Amino acid sequence: MPDDGALRVGAAVHDNESGRVGLVTGHEGPYLQLHPLGGGGGREWDADPARLRPLAPAELLSARVAEANARSRTGLGLGDMRGSPHTGRAGYDT
Length: 94
Fold this sequence. Notes:
The protein is built from one helix and five strands; from the N terminus they run βββββα.
């Protein structure tokens, strides 16, 4: 982050207004554009920079683990993961 406290593109942040976490992808007028952490989809949203705070390293890790757990519960992306226990096994979508 720059010394002036501005959030840069790529920063992981918590949006206090929506309660969501995301990555800063750009800005549009006075707002920052955020994308969900997972990167596998989800809709971008605009957020007021005054309502954002950077994630601490432990919060970022927790958010990424929660996203990975959510993907594993729904089966999204498992067929693409090397060594996935669901790859090529009967009864599972690949």
